[in-house]
Design brief:
By secondary structure, the protein is α/β, with parallel strands linked by helices. It has one domain: Rossmann fold (3-Layer(aba) Sandwich). The protein has six helices and ten strands; from the N terminus they run E-E-E-H-E-H-E-H-E-H-E-H-E-H-E-E. Strands 6-5-4-7-8-10-9 form a seven-stranded mixed β-sheet, sandwiched between helices. A three-stranded antiparallel β-sheet has the order 1-2-3, with no helix packed on it. The relative contact order is 0.14.
C-alpha cells in the first residue's frame, strides 16, 4: 500500500467524535496503526488533558494512558508539512502517528526521540511507516534532545524549515527544546508545538514570542501552537463551532487561529 491510497477526499467521513477543520487537505492513515483505539479519558493521569473537549482521544491499546495528537491536530501537521518541502525535523514521536502525517505530506523527516532506543517502540514505529509506504522518507534517530539535535545539525550542517516539538513535557524540557529549535531553524521557518494546554509546554512558545517570532495558537483538544518567521506562514484553522472553547489563563494573550 502506498500513501496515495490513504488520501481521503473531503467527503470521506472520519469516525464519529472526530473533527477536522474545513479548508484542510485530508488524509487517513489509520490502517497503519492497528493498535490505535479511542481512549478512555478517565484513565489518563496527566493533569492537563482537556477531558471536557468531546473529540476522540486516540491512544495505543498497549499504552492506553498516553495519547496521540488527535485527528484535527494531525491534519494541522499534515497541511503544515505540505507547505514545507525538503528535510524536516520532529522532536518526540511517541509511536509514530505524528511522524506518519508529516512524512505523508512528502517531506523527508528526521525524528529524534529517546524512546526509539527501545526495540519494541522502534519496531512499532518502523512497522507503521513501512505499512504506509513512508519508511524510506524517515530517519528514526534514538537520542535525547537537545543534544541529539545539535549533534545532527552540526554533523550535517543542517537547518530545518519545519520543526515539530512534542518531546518531554515537564519543565525545563519544553523550553530547552524550543531554544534548540530556534538555533537550528532556517531563516524561513515554522515551529509547531503540541499540548500547550500545559503551562510548562507553553513556555517554549512563550520563549519564541519574546524572541521576535510570530505566534498563534490553535483551539484543538490539547491546543497546538505555531511560531514562524520569514516567508513561511502557518495554516489557518477553524475550531469546531460545536464546542464552547476556552483558553487557559497562561495562553490568554495569544491570537487564536480562526476564520478570516
Amino acid at each position: 500500500m502506498s500513501v496515495r491510497d490513504t488520501i481521503a477526499p473531503p467527503t470521506v467521513a472520519f469516525p464519529d467524535g472526530d473533527y477536522v477543520s474545513p479548508g484542510l487537505a485530508r488524509i487517513r492513515l489509520d490502517d497503519s496503526f492497528p493498535n490505535m483505539v479511542v481512549g478512555d479519558k478517565s484513565t489518563a493521569t496527566w493533569p492537563y488533558l482537556r477531558r471536557e473537549i468531546p473529540h476522540n482521544w486516540y491512544v495505543d491499546r498497549r499504552q492506553p494512558t498516553v495519547g496521540f495528537v488527535n485527528r484535527d491536530e494531525a491534519h494541522i501537521l499534515y497541511n503544515s508539512a505540505l507547505r514545507c518541502p525538503g528535510r524536516q525535523l520532529e522532536i518526540g514521536c511517541w509511536l509514530g502517528w505524528s511522524a506518519c502525517h508529516l512524512a505523508a505530506a512528502g517531506v523527508e523527516l528526521d525524528v529524534i526521540d529517546p524512546l526509539l532506543a527501545e526495540p519494541d517502540i522502534y519496531g512499532s514505529v518502523l512497522a507503521s511507516l513501512s505499512h504506509a509506504g513512508l519508511a524510506e522518507r524517515v530517519r528514526l534517530l534514538p537520542g535525547i534532545s537537545p543534544a541529539k539535535v545539535f549533534d545532527l545539525a552540526g554533523l550535517e550542517r543542517r537547518r530545518w524549515s519545519l520543526i515539530f516539538v512534542d518531546g518531554g513535557h515537564d519543565r525545563p524540557a519544553p523550553l530547552r527544546d524550543a531554544k534548540a529549535a530556534a538555533l537550528v531553524a532556517a531563516d524561513d521557518a515554522l515551529i509547531l508545538f503540541h499540548d500547550l494546554a500545559s503551562p510548562e509546554v507553553a513556555e517554549g512558545l512563550d520563549f519564541l514570542r519574546v524572541s521576535g517570532w510570530n505566534t498563534i495558537v490553535y483551539q484543538t483538544m490539547q491546543i497546538m501552537g505555531a511560531a514562524w518567521r520569514g516567508g513561511i506562514e502557518p495554516v489557518r484553522h477553524i475550531p469546531d463551532p460545536s464546542v464552547a472553547w476556552r483558553l487557559p489563563e497562561h495562553l490568554r494573550t495569544y491570537i487564536v487561529s480562526g476564520p478570516v
